[in-house]
Amino acid sequence: MKVKIFHENIFTLQQGKKRFLATRNLTPGLEVYGERLVQVDEAEYRIWEPKRSKLAAMLLKKLPSPFTTTSKVLYLGSATGTTVSHVSDIVQQGVVYAVEFSPRTMRDMLPVCEERANIIPLLADASKPQSYANVVEPVDVIFQDVAQPNQASIALSNVQHFLKPGGYLLMSIKARSVDSTAKPDTVFKQQLKTLLEQDNSKLELVKKQKLAPFHIDHLGVVVKKTE
């Protein structure tokens, strides 16, 4: 396979006419969720499937990646660690604070955290950021993937608590989780208004893009904290 740099610490692997998104494995020889491992020269890569990861879909839909090797990341809605593990690969010298509300789901993610020293698991409610403010430091990036009706409000609250000036919020808005009866475009407009037009939000929209065909009725959003 041919390896090309896609963004910092994010790659594409080319095999014939097929192209795969991938990250370099922080824990060679260990898979997380049954993903394909590919050895190229001295490095091992993990195939990153966009249908299983909103963040991977956002990158393939050409939304910008603010992640660097040393980024400090707050991940809201970490679930069992599928995407968190790829973020862990990207920010190899940074840290990922992984917030998950469900004890059962967190239990499934803990083995991933045991193998990856740069993930700090937090069993907490993302709508109550003050409950983990004694653990999480100011961060460069917040990524949110939660299925709640108040997604924008949750994101905004965490931005105000933890995001550094000049930092970025990436979020996947799930229209059906906000209002299953409204048109997705109506939901997206309402959520963006909540996110960007609140007094003192200090956020500016960088780019938005629907995530179909990878995820139907989802909108990927990248915003920057201006000060």
General description of the model:
S-adenosyl-L-methionine binds at residues 82-83, 100-101, 125-126, 145-148. It is an enzyme of class 2 (transferase). Interacts with nop5. Component of box C/D small ribonucleoprotein (sRNP) particles that contain rpl7ae, FlpA and nop5, plus a guide RNA. It is a single chain. The chain is an alpha/beta fold. The protein folds into two domains: 2-47, 2-Layer Sandwich (Phosphorylase Kinase, domain 1), CATH 3.30.200; 54-225, Rossmann fold. Helices cover 26% and strands 34% of the residues. The chain has six helices and twelve strands. Helix 3 (103-115) links the parallel strand 7 (95-100) and strand 8. Helix 4 (151-162) runs parallel beside helix 6.
Q: List the uncertain runs.
A: none
Assigned CATH superfamily of the largest domain: Vaccinia Virus protein VP39
CATH class of the largest domain: Alpha Beta
- The helix count comes to 6
Q: Mean of the pLDDT scores?
A: 95
Could you tell me the strand content as a percent range? 25-35%
Helix proportion range: 25-40%
Write down the domain tally: 2
Q: Give the total of beta strands.
A: 12
Strand order of the largest sheet: 8-7-6-9-10-12-11
Q: State the order of secondary-structure elements, H for helix, E for strand.
A: EEEEEHEHEHEEHEHHEE
What structural class should be given to the helix and strand makeup?
A: alpha/beta
Could you say what the CATH architecture of the largest domain is?
3-Layer(aba) Sandwich
The coarse overall form would be globular
N-to-C CA distance = 43 Å
Task: Describe the main β-sheet briefly.
Answer: 7 strands, mixed
CATH-defined topology of the largest domain: Rossmann fold
What is the alpha-carbon Rg in Å? Answer: 17 Å
